[in-house]
Structures are given as C-alpha cells and as structure tokens.
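Milestone M4 deliverable, item 7.
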Amino acid sequence: MLHPSEDIHFVTPTISFWLANSKDSESFINAFVEPLKTFKVVIFTVNNNDDMSQTDGGTHWSLLVYYRDTKTFVHYDSFKYINNWYAIKLYEAVKVHLSSTEGSGSTSEEFCQIRKRRRKIYPIAAMGPYFREHYTPQQTNGYDCGLYVMAIAGVICRWCIADLKKNHELLFPDIMEHVDNSVESTMRPELLHIIEDLRT
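Output delivered:
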C-alpha cells in the first residue's frame, strides 16, 4: 500500500499475515518482498492469529517497522509485548529478503553481546538486520490496540517525512512523546468524522 511519500510503504495486514505464516518457497516470498527494498521505512502489521484458515482471527494488533538506514526491525506493542513472538516470527520470515546485506540477522541483545566481546563500537548499520522492542504507550483496556497502531503509524510517517532528512542522530521516532492513552478517547471520534467525510 503506497504512502504519498516515496520513502514509506505500508504492507497490508493480509500480506503481513501471509508472510509470517507462509509455507511457500523462499523465492516465492522474495517476489513479494523484493520491491520493498526501495523504501526507507516499511510498516507491517502483526496479529496474534495462529490459525491460517481463520482470516479474521486473533485478538491483538501491533506494528513491526523496518528502518532501512539502521537495518533494524522495531516492534511497537501497546499491550505488554503480547505480540513479541508473532513479531519475531514475521521478522524471521522477511529479514533476509528485505536486507541488502548477507547474513541471518541478529537481535539487539545479540548485537550488544558482540560489541561487548570485541570491545569496539560498530556503526549501527554495519550489521543486522536485527530486531528490537521499542518503548510504546500502553493501552488501558483490552480492545483499543487498533487505535494505537494507527496513531503510532502516523507518528512514524510524520517523522520520516519531516525529521529523517534533517536529524541523522535520531535513529527512531520518539513514540512516547507523541502518543499516550488519550487516543482512546480522542481518536475514535476523529476516525468517525473521516469515515463520514468519505461517505459524502
């Protein structure tokens, strides 16, 4: 799904789910992922559905975002990292295809251990791709994960468009600064207004 910015691409929930659970050949998966290599930021949705035959299954949504400049997959989960395993599953499925470097990738913990053993500080983009959890505002109920997914995606897009080209020291957007649990009361009316406008 294209974003007005040429640097950003949204992978639809159906494709994200298929990539995480596909039993197809690596070459077949690569045919879907290869075109994404041209984008600086690729946004996937993560769902905790375990049943491939149940397309509307799962109870929780989160975001997995690939930042090409740092070769890092960042997981944003608004409910106690409940989707961590599912995010890693998707990361494992696409990391080799999305990265332009060879190698199987590393988690951020493994990266820290490598740096500690060798006693050197390597540029963050010199290895990877790796996976990390990011501080994410936490929802206060069990049903508003979708609002957080949209709010966080919005912050990421605005950061990519406005800040990424200006501040090379900021590796990732500061989600905590821009999103809090007020989205639970403010965002739903905003979405309803957008839907009503689209219907007219």
